[in-house]
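# nightly structure sweep
# worker-07 picked up a monomer target from the shared queue
# config: single-sequence mode, recycle default, output format = structure tokens
# input follows
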Amino acid sequence: MNRLLNAAVIGCGYWGPNLIRNLRSVADCEVKSVCDLSEERLRHIKSLYPEIHFTTRCEEVIADAQIDAVMIATPVASHFQLAKQSLEAGKHTFVEKPITASVDQARELTALAEGRGLTLMTGHTFIYSAPVRRIKELIQGGELGEILYISCRRLNLGLVQKDINVAWDLAPHDISIILYVLEKTPLSVNCQGKAHIDPNVEDVTSMTLNFQNGGLAIIHSSWLDPNKVREMTFVGSEKMLVYSDTEPLEKIRIYDKRIEIPAHYDSFGEFCYSYHYGDVCSPYIRQEEPLKVECQHFVDCIRRGAKPDSSGLEGLEVVKILEATATSLRNRGAEVWISGRAPTEPRHEAQNGEVRAGSSVRV
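# output follows
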């Protein structure tokens, strides 16, 4: 494909306009069409980009033979059907996170894309940010030592969703970062939460991802916090790292701190932990809008026939965790084995469709 790649964006509510703006900055790509059910939203976008074709009918976009790629930024419930129609029409497809509302749907999309030889990409924007890329280099290079645990806080006041809870809304960012930098997936998950605004939608959740060999990650998500917090702490056996995305410049700080256990001691009186306090440094990181990098990566992967860093398979892994999280929430925080990863059979069987707190189930 030597000509410009023609792309369309379906959904221009909260996030769609950002996709349109960044996709237009990709040199060898042109945004040909934008679709949304709201004519008011379309009028606003048309005032910004009058050269783009606008429609309220997604069928028109998908049927357009001139469109090579479709980017979907609609509510989660519509992701699967729109993406399936796009892939069946032979179009490369980008879907905002989470890729689908269920594991079965995500599996079907990945199989469909593979069978058609099409690029399927999930909008895990943060893995395209320079700070996260640097964190991965540091962890994979052994700078922090063995990662003991990860603590994540993604908090703000709103935006309260009606169709998905806060775990499905905010936690995919942290989950996708964790999977990306560690290059491994958790075995099980525990999750608890509460619904304060809408009785059917949890607006505060706390989940724990349990990894092989005892590693864990704790993710706190909330729509009911007075401050916007985007923070991840990586505690290693050698050093510790704090990533704060709300910081304008020093987004990463590396702490040369750790606790050392004496190698040899003959009595309890000789046993004493040693606390190591070293320097704190903040490496220089050249800033570039992650969404722009993500859009460029989508187009590059289409042209090269390469697998995206956040392909449908990565989207599937995140949905596996989210689906297990939903099961844990329904069962008061029970440990839930993520599909296909339980090293042994569940310790307790479900009784009458319920799982007791402290027991475990498989999804």
